[in-house]
Amino acid sequence: MSLDALTSALPDYAKDLRLNLGSVTGTSLLTQQQLWGTVLVCAIASRSAVVLRELEEEADARLSPEAYTAAKSAAAVMAMTNVFHRTRHLLSDPEYGKLRAGLRTNVLGDPGVERTDVELWSLAVSAVNGCGACLDSHERALRGVGVEPETIQEAFKIASVVQAVAVTLDAEAVLTR
């Protein structure tokens, strides 16, 4: 299956998702590397085997080996840091915010691709995982290097569509009518 087959697998009631998936992958403001890295990290973060299998194939064909590995690294590290920082933020005791995290994220220091790309990918994963602290942090980093709000929004728009496709297709695999 490919992107087209994945789109075709969406039921009629999810026509908007079908159109949005085509739109975010076909008319993006992002570079090809930013776009397909964002698609890949969001597919990983969605936890949907079907969506990951199909979108990974598309991303693999469009990303360099370095970008493919950097995207997977960003998804892995953000899976950890999103839980950590979201929990810290949700706890009412501010003392946790003063403690050293003590979590290794060295892969983000030298990812092998443009830092802006990894920041976009990290922001997109944070959107899927619902970590406000990480969203703020990565948005500030992107704005700090001159990335426009429209470009940043493009990353979380992709995240929202990929997540919705994953939820819908996973539900369809279980629903009886």
UniProtKB/TrEMBL annotation:
Disulfide bonds join 131-134. One of its GO terms (molecular function) is peroxiredoxin activity. Gene3D superfamilies: AhpD-like (1.20.1290.10). InterPro entries: AhpD, AhpD-like, AhpD_core, CMD-like. The active site is at residues 131, 134. The keyword Transcription regulation does not apply. Coiled coil: none annotated. Antioxidant protein with alkyl hydroperoxidase activity. Required for the reduction of the AhpC active site cysteine residues and for the regeneration of the AhpC enzyme activity. NCBIfam families: ahpD, ahpD_dom. This is Alkyl hydroperoxide reductase AhpD. It comes from Streptomyces apricus. The gene is ahpD.
